Amino acid sequence: MIPETDRRRDDMRAVVLVPVLKNARASRAAQPEAAPAPQRSEEARLEEAIGLARAIDLEVVQGLIVQVSQPRPATLMGTGKMGEIKALLDQHDAGLVIVDHPLTPVQQRNLEKEWNAKVIDRTGLILEIFGRRASTKEGTLQVDLAHLNYQKGRLVRSWTHLERQRGGAGFMGGPGETQIEADRRLLQERIVKLERELEQVVRTRQLHRAKRRKVPHPIVALVGYTNAGKSTLFNRMTGAGVLAEDMLFATLDPTLRRMKLPHGRTVILSDTVGFISDLPTHLVAAFRATLEEVLEADLILHVRDMSDPDNAAQSADVMRILSDLGIDEKEREARIIEVWNKIDRLDPEAHDAMAERASGRDNIMAVSAITGEGVDALLAEIARRLSGVLTETTVAIPADKLALVSWVYENAIVDERRDQEDGSVELDVRLSESQAAALERRLGNGPKPEKEDWER
Question: Which residue ranges does the record assign to the Hflx-type G domain (predicted)?
Answer without folding.
Answer: 218-390
